[in-house]
Design brief:
The chain has nine helices and 19 strands. By secondary structure, it is an alpha+beta fold. The strands form four sheets. It has a six-stranded antiparallel beta sheet with strand order 7-6-19-16-9-10. The model is unreliable at about 5-15 and about 165-180 (pLDDT under 50).
Length: about 300
Amino acid sequence: MELLTAPIASEVAVRPRDPALLIANPGSRRGARLRDAALRAFAAAGVRCDAVLTERPGHGSELARSRGRDYGAVFTLGGDGTAIEVIDALAHSDVPTGVLPGGTGNLLARSLGVPLAMERAVPALLMGDEALFDLGVLNGGQRFALTLGMGVDARMIEATPAPLKRRYGVAAYMLAAARATLGRNTFAVRAEVDGVVIERDATAVMIANFGAVLNDLLRLGPDIVADDGVLNLCVFSPASTADALSLAWRLFRKDFRPHPGMLYRSGSRFRVECTPAQTVQADGEVRGTTPLDVRVEPRAARLLRPRRA
């Protein structure tokens, strides 16, 4: 495990998050260059920052549990997978997590409004606010922050190999999503939301915590916010390829008027069964197959976000 330290630039006044711990994934896209840029930004802000590198999947969680509570804040630099490992480990603690944009999609950083340029992202979080957010819990174990999904988005994750992600970034996801959408693989869904049963055919099912994706370029549904104590079931059932494209256009336009191809239900406990069984992704990582059980953990994550105007 490699340890790096950014020196203190004592002439700059900052908020009291000193020292900070940076947990960085060296295998993420542009990892080494972004890590150096992050350490320079911490030094320029006058904050001592110790950096440790993850060595394997799950190591970020181990590092956060063993060392995170010794710091004023823990920052993550990697993909959404690295971020959720740390958030999971620090759930229900007083130590805030700052998510820096070091991965391919950076969906969580974008959802929190974190600038993508490192020299802006670090000071924006250091001078930002702390906020409590809900988390989802899959099958009584692993937490997720953004969305859990089956159908189109899970196939998108499966169809995007790591070399393609590193080379083309978020564009690789967009290409895979287009292919999955046009494929229109339909499956039967039985979803139970706080005891109420919903049955229908679908091409995509999501349980969403954050409703806005890619800096609010796309919204998954109406009134989906990450701090209201509930999660949101989103079921998409287009009748044709043209209907699928029309629904996608509605999401981009944030048009949530009633439509037979879109169904939304909020709740605190969910069970989803699919025929045939479907691959499940959570925050961009494949997490097995259906059936699944999900519950909300209200205000479990303490996250840093840029101060709102």
